[in-house]
Write a structure and sequence with these properties.
Helix content is 25%, strand content 24%. It has helices at residues 12-22, 54-61, 103-111, 124-128, 141-149, 167-178, 204-213, 232-243, 269-274, 290-301, 326-331, 363-369; strands at 32-42, 45-52, 76-83, 86-93, 132-136, 155-158, 192-197, 218-224, 247-253, 283-287, 315-317, 346-350, 355-359, 387-392, 395-397, 409-412, 416-418, 422-424. The strands form 4 sheets. The chain has a 6-stranded antiparallel β-sheet with strand order 4-3-6-1-2-5. It has a 5-stranded parallel β-sheet with strand order 9-8-7-10-11, with helices on both faces. Strands 13-12-18-14-16 form a 5-stranded mixed β-sheet, covered by helices on one side. The longest helix is centred in the middle third of the chain and has 12 residues, at 167-178.
Length: 426
């Protein structure tokens, strides 16, 4: 009986094995990115531009889902970075949308209309279709390496774009809950409020553009400790405001009272009401520090909506941390200002290695400060590579505020600080 099965005469894995020996960028199945350019976006934000290999483009752009032409605004990729013989994995937000030039490419093209020799015409299509751009904050081991040390031409393994901080996973779901009949093409787009602090603006760069293209009225609040004057990000918001009258933005420098909204450097009820938005129908996207998210969550809880509705239900957050419960996370943060969780110096004993060290920070950072190398990956509580067994002692999870029991359990060293002396089975 014919089943239609046709075995491959030459396995793709074998071809990949041979091709990567010829050139590390070649692969039929593994998405890879090659670093080709850097650009400063602000005082603390660097854009990195990559060329994707054939496997990335085929899987991301030829997946049969032409609704987003590669990825949605707000999605991210996971990069695998080799530093000093150790692989690290990090999530980074994609800047801009696929198939569209970024704003600095548009500026370059406008400035070069009268000078044909001002840029390489052969590279112009790549800025629109064939490049991937992320934004990083030059802090920490991996981000600092990418923004300063990695040579142009360096190749990294990458995931495909993913993530649910998108219009498709939030706005459409809310619209479906608000009406009993199917959505029509003439439905009025919901107003959107984007709230970010610091580098939390990165996932919103493409998402805001996509929302405006879809006709959503957009308001942006961006809190930062540095000045926005004459930065490329400022240029981006000015261009969007000139092109879309439905876009309003507020850039708040927390060190400059003249930029405060409703007279406060922090997000509160007065801030939200000063925006004069129909909050009941407004979808809120937020990305930033725990202090910002806590302030937003508390402010939304203090605003009364008709029909017993909760403004908190309209919040969508982006966080690369392992948050089991949004309500529980915010209930553990009681102060509006950022609060650093610290403890007294405790002794950590590694039973398997018969070594010990002292730590008042996370178990992982304490070990590294003592010159002890321990398994780790993302350093944000996501990848689980740092997970180990605790034999005894109490630790505190800095993401949830939860304090462990004194007995045996599995923990992550990158997000736990010691509350007592601790014994780890390492």
């Amino acid at each position: 009986m014919t089943t239609g099965y046709r075995p491959e005469l030459i396995q793709r894995v074998f071809i990949d094995f041979i091709s990567t020996r010829l050139h590390p960028f070649w692969s039929l199945t593994v998405p890879k990115l090659r670093l080709i350019a850097r650009r400063t976006l602000s005082d603390d934000l660097i854009a990195l531009q990559f060329e994707p290999n054939r496997a990335f483009k085929q899987q991301a752009f030829s997946s049969g889902n032409s609704s987003h032409d590669g990825w949605h605004g707000g999605q991210h990729i996971n990069l695998s970075i080799l530093i000093d013989g150790i692989y690290h994995q990090r999530h980074y937000s994609l800047v801009g949308l696929a198939q569209q030039p970024l704003w600095w490419h548009e500026d370059r093209d406008k400035n070069s209309n009268g000078n044909k020799n001002s840029f390489d015409e052969k590279s112009q299509p790549q800025t629109i279709v064939s490049t991937i751009t992320i934004a990083v904050k030059p802090q920490g081991l991996v981000s600092d390496y990418l923004s300063k040390r990695a040579a142009l031409g360096t190749i990294f393994n990458s995931s495909l774009p993913s993530g649910e901080f998108t219009l498709a996973h939030t706005v459409l779901a809310q619209q479906a809950n608000q009406i009993s009949e199917p959505l029509s093409l003439t439905s009025t787009p919901l107003p959107l409020l984007f709230i970010a602090s610091g580098s939390g603006i990165t996932p919103m760069l493409g998402l805001i553009t996509q929302a405006l293209q879809n006709g959503h009225p957009v308001t942006l609040l961006h809190y930062n400790r540095t000045t926005f004057y004459k930065s490329p990000l400022q240029d981006q918001w000015q261009q969007l405001a000139a092109k879309y009258p439905i876009f309003i933005y507020h850039l708040i420098n927390t060190e400059d009272p003249s930029t405060y909204l409703a007279g406060s450097r922090h997000l509160n009820v007065e801030t939200l009401t000063a925006l004069k938005l129909p909050l009941m129908d407004t979808q809120i996207f937020a990305c930033g520090s725990p202090a910002l998210l806590a302030g937003l969550y508390r402010a939304c809880g203090e605003i009364d909506l008709p029909d017993n509705k909760q403004l908190r239900d309209n919040i969508t957050i982006e966080s690369f941390s392992a948050i089991e419960s949004l309500d529980y996370m915010f209930s553990t943060i009681d102060k509006a200002d950022e609060e650093v969780i610290t403890s007294d110096v405790k002794t950590i004993y590694l039973r398997g290695r018969q070594r010990q060290y002292n730590s008042s920070t996370t178990l992982l950072l304490g070990a590294e400060s003592a010159g002890i190398r321990m398994s780790h990956g993302c350093r944000q509580g996501i990848c689980q590579l740092c997970r180990c067994n605790k034999i005894s002692g109490r630790v505190k999870n800095i993401q949830t505020g939860k304090i462990s029991n004194d007995g045996y359990e599995s923990i992550q060293t990158c997000i736990n600080v010691p509350m007592t002396d601790v014994i780890l089975d390492i």
